[in-house]
Each structure stands twice: as C-alpha cells, then as structure tokens.
C-alpha cells in the first residue's frame, strides 16, 4: 500500500498522512488481496484480517475483542500479513483503467472479457470514472462497426478493380459514396450507441433512487452499463452478427444485473428490474412490430401470451457464506441475531427467497429490511439491540429464514491448518438423506400468503439440503433425535416461529414438546 502521490510505503503508520509528501490517505481507498493484510487496533495492537473481495474488514466498524475499543477500518494500523510480501497484498487495477505495464489492446480485450464473463469485477473500480467507461463502450461498438463493414468494403473493392480492368467507367462517385457511408457508419454508430446507453443509464439510476439507496451516484450506474456493453462484440461476426442481437441483449441484461448488485450494493430484485429496461425495450419493440404486422394481415388474430422469467435463486448460498465468515472471525460462534449477517454481504432479499416478498414490506424491530441494510453500522447495531433475543433461545426468524444454530459450533475451515475460506457458500444436495444438525431452515411462516413448496436446510459440514415441504414433519423428527443426542433442546415446527416471538428452551420444555 503506497502513497498515490509519491509512492511512499504506508504500512505500519498510526497517522493518516504520508510522511514523505503529507498527502492524506485511507486504507479503504486501496484494493487489497483478501487475507493478505492485517488491520491492527490502534489501542492494543489486536490484528484482524481483511476478508471481503477488496481485502477490507467485514464489518468495517466494530468493538475490539481484546480492549473493547470502538474501531473503524480507516483508523487502524495496516500491515502485510505474516509471510506475505508487499507485492502480494495489492489487487491488480481494473484493466481498462490500468495504464502501467499494459498496452491499450491488451487492456481492451481483458476488459471485454470481464464485461462478458465476470461482471462482478467491475466493483473493483472504486470511485466512479464514467468518462473512461464511455470511451470503452465506444471502442466496443467501433470494433463491431469496423469488423462487420470491412468484408463488404473488400468485396466492393475487388468488384471495382475488376470493372476498371475491363474498361468500365463512372465508378468514382460510387466509390466515394460507399466509402463515405462506411466511414459515417464506423464513426456514427459507436457515438450513437454510447449516447443511447448513457440515456438508458440515466433512467436506470432514477429508478434505483426511487426504490432505495445506492452506494455511488449516477457515474457508478453509467459505468456498469458501459462496461456491460461488452457482449455486443459478438455482433462483429461478418454477415451473421445481426442474428446474435437477441442473444447479446439478454447477455447484457444478465451481466448488468450482476454488476449493479455488487457495484451499487442493491438488492437483486432492484438490479434485475433496472437492467431489464434495454431488454424490454428491444423485445417490446420487436413484439410491437410483430403485433402490428399480424393485425394488419388478419384482424381475427387473437391476443398473444407473454411470460416474464427471473433468474434462478439458490436458496441459502449467501447466508451460508456469511455464517462461515462470521464464525471464522468469532471462534466458531454464530451471530447473536441473524440480522448481523447483513454486515457480511447478505442482501435483504436473501432472507426472503421462499416467499419472494419485497424487503421494504418486511420489518423487524420497527425497521424494514431495505432501510436496515443501507443504514450506518451504528444504526444497525441499535436495531439489533432492539431485537435482542432471550439467553436460552433455540430458534429465531428473519424473513423466511429460521436460524437454529444456537449452541452449535460452526466450522469455518476445511481442515485443521487449512487457509480460512470465509465466503464459501457450501454445496447443495437436492433430496439428500444426509444427517446433520440444522444451522437454519428456509420456510415461510404460516401467516404468509405465499407458502413454500420446497424447504432448504444447512448443516455444519457446509451442505445445503432441499426437500419437499410435505417431508418436513418426518425430517424434523429425525432432526430432533440428533439434537437430543447432542444435548440440545428439540425444535418445534419452524413454520410456527415468527419474527416477533423467538422460540426458547424454557418455552419448549414448558409446552412439553418432545421429539
């Protein structure tokens, strides 16, 4: 980690200004490799490791476990982890913005690859630099224009030479007009496309602001739209590129939804909603044209049927990853309340995959999920405190998730001595008969209008199990046998557990419940 003004190393400094040039800095401004940097408490020197995708602390603010001091990442003393060289601590910059040691062509194609296959990497950019992304999108469409037009220019050139050799004349005007059209096409199309994407991004950002907070201003949304134009490169295939337009529209939709969720820190449903505008515009225009032609041919044509599909959501993947990240930093213990997983990259709608309810319609301790996720750490800690659980709790609900990890050690390592894998979501086993204590159950409570048809549970060995809701009673009986063997209180039917009323051991024993 070096000064961005004079390249002076900034390790092990208690202050926040460069000793060489006096420029200020913050550790959060740097892209670090996960698990390679330790952040030390300025009061007692207790070390914590950056585990998120940017190598930063999760959460960024907390109370030191050693001295109890309230600390934030940007005030902590930063050092390379033991045995890690300085060069291995830094992430490589986003290719299109990295001018050191790379040619423009290499940076261009690496960025195209990210936009097509790894859109989540756009989050590495940090503070928005929208004009650079506009230039990139213009390059993409210029590539499409040049490659798609070049074969026709070659064919025309060969035809013109052949005609001139056979004594034909009068082709000069045709050559000039063809070249002029081609030049206008190659220059005009990239500019028009980049402007069109910018206008769409403006609309998208407006909808994002109407539906909740965003991490970055308009420039962050413009960047995701521009870099996610990369799939259009497929349309450069000569003669056949136009047939790939429907594919590239859908491709860009998916990549932008992924990029927006990570870049702007929004819920999945918001990212999918705003990224669908270009797709719906293209397919809506085509559908309107088909309907107009069809009605023109036959007034007796009936109405069409339209279906809208959404992305398949794997229940529990984000919650699994967050639980193990939390356990890694808390000696195998689960959080005091499931809401704390918001600090570990869980989105509000990850708690609502069974019912599909909007996070704004679900509240806990008087605060809706969207507001809670976008609040400052101090506000979130206050909400969690208001929703505090009894000391003998055995199950509590957050949205569609009933957490049952209380009293169970949560492994965060694959094997003794192995590197920590926080963020590992585990594996899904559909219909498995594998036995294991449940860390959580994803199933709707009885009062919810939309009921679950599939129940998902997770076990300490990082296995998530799907089974029909009709099998829940049988599997719950087996689970309570395991809990009895482990010295844990039995679980009631998770569908009767509500957010307002967590289940305690004393309540279960008082009700005479037995497996």
Topology:
Layout (H helix, E strand, L loop, with lengths): L36 E4 L6 E3 L11 E3 L6 E3 L4 E4 L23 H14 L12 H36 L6 H40 L6 H10 L17 H20 L3 H30 L19 H13 L33 E2 L2 E2 H6 L2 H10 L6 E6 L2 E3 L23 E4 L9 E3 L11 E5 L4 E6 L3 H14 L17 E2 H6 L5
Parallel strand pairs: 10-13
Antiparallel strand pairs: 1-2, 1-5, 3-4, 6-7, 8-9, 8-14, 9-11, 11-12, 12-13
Helix pairs in contact: 2-3, 2-4, 3-4, 3-6, 4-5, 5-6
**Total beta strands:** 14
Shape: globular
- Report the structural category: alpha+beta
Q: Please, what is the average pLDDT?
A: 79
- In terms of quaternary structure, the protein is single chain
Q: Strand percentage, roughly?
A: 5-15%
The CA-CA distance between the termini, in Å, is: 56 Å
Provide the spatial order of strands within the biggest beta sheet.
10-13-12-11-9-8-14
Largest sheet: 7 strands, mixed
Per DSSP, the total helix count is 11
Order of helices and strands: EEEEEHHHHHHHEEHHEEEEEEHEH
Q: What does this molecule look like?
A:
The protein has 515 residues and is α+β, with helices and mostly antiparallel strands. The protein has 3 domains: 1-91, no CATH class; 108-297, no CATH class; 317-510, no CATH class. 39% of the residues lie in helices and 10% in strands. It contains 11 helices and 14 strands. The chain has helices spanning 104-117, 130-165, 172-211, 218-227, 245-264, 268-297, 317-329, 369-374, 377-386, 472-485, 505-510; strands at 37-40, 47-49, 61-63, 70-72, 77-80, 363-364, 367-368, 393-398, 401-403, 427-430, 440-442, 454-458, 463-468, 503-504. The strands form 4 sheets. The protein has a 7-stranded mixed sheet with strand order 10-13-12-11-9-8-14. Strands 2-1-5 form a 3-stranded antiparallel sheet, with no helix packed on it. α2 runs parallel beside α4 (218-227) and α4 (218-227) packs antiparallel against α5 (245-264). The longest helix is centred in the middle third of the chain and has 40 residues, at 172-211. Mean pLDDT is 79; it is low at 297-313 and 413-434.
């Amino acid at each position: 980690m070096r000064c961005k003004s004079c390249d002076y190393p900034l390790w092990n400094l208690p202050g926040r200004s460069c000793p060489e040039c006096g420029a200020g800095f913050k550790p959060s401004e740097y892209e670090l490799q996960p698990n390679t940097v330790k952040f030390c408490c300025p009061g007692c020197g207790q070390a914590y490791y950056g585990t998120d995708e940017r190598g930063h602390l999760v959460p960024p603010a907390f109370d030191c476990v050693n001295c109890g001091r309230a600390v934030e990442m940007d005030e902590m003393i930063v050092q390379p982890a033991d045995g890690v060289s300085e060069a291995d601590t830094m992430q490589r910059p986003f290719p299109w913005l990295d001018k050191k040691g790379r040619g423009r062509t290499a940076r261009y194609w690496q960025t195209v690859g990210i936009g097509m296959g790894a859109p989540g990497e756009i989050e590495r950019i940090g503070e928005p630099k929208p004009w650079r992304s506009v230039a990139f999108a213009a390059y993409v469409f210029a590539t499409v224009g040049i490659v798609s037009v070049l074969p026709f220019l070659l064919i025309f050139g060969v035809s013109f030479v052949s005609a001139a050799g056979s004594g034909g004349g009068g082709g000069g005007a045709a050559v000039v007009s063809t070249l002029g059209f081609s030049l206008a096409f190659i220059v005009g199309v990239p500019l028009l496309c980049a402007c069109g994407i910018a206008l769409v991004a403006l609309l998208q950002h407006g909808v994002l602001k109407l539906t909740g907070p965003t991490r970055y201003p308009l420039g962050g949304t413009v960047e995701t739209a521009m870099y996610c134009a990369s799939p259009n490169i497929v349309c450069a295939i000569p003669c056949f590129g136009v047939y790939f337009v429907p594919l590239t529209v859908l491709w860009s939709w998916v990549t932008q939804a992924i990029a927006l969720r990570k870049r702007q820190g929004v819920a999945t449903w918001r990212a999918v909603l705003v990224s669908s505008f270009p797709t719906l515009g293209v397919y809506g225009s085509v559908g309107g044209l088909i309907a107009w032609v069809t009605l023109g041919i036959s007034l007796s044509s009936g109405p069409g049927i339209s279906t809208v599909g959404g992305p398949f959501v794997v229940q529990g993947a984000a919650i699994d990853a967050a639980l193990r990240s939390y356990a890694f930093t808390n000696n195998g213990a689960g959080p005091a309340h499931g809401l704390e997983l918001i600090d570990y990259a869980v989105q509000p709608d990850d708690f609502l995959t069974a019912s599909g309810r909007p996070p704004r319609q679900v509240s806990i301790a008087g605060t809706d999920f969207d507001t809670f996720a976008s609040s400052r750490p101090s506000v979130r800690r206050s909400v969690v405190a208001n929703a505090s659980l009894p000391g003998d709790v055995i199950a509590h609900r957050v949205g569609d998730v009933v957490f049952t990890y209380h009293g169970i050690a949560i492994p965060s390592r694959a094997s003794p001595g192995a590197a920590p894998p926080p963020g590992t979501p585990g594996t899904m086993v559909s219909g498995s008969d594998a036995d294991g204590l449940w860390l959580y159950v994803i199933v709707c409570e009885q009062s919810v209008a939309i009921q679950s048809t599939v129940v998902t549970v997770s076990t300490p060995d990082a296995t998530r199990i799907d089974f029909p809701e009709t099998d829940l009673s049988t599997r719950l009986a087996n689970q309570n046998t395991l809990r009895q063997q482990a010295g844990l209180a039995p679980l009631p039917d998770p569908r009767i557990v509500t957010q307002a009323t967590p289940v305690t051991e004393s309540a279960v024993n008082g009700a005479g419940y037995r497996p």
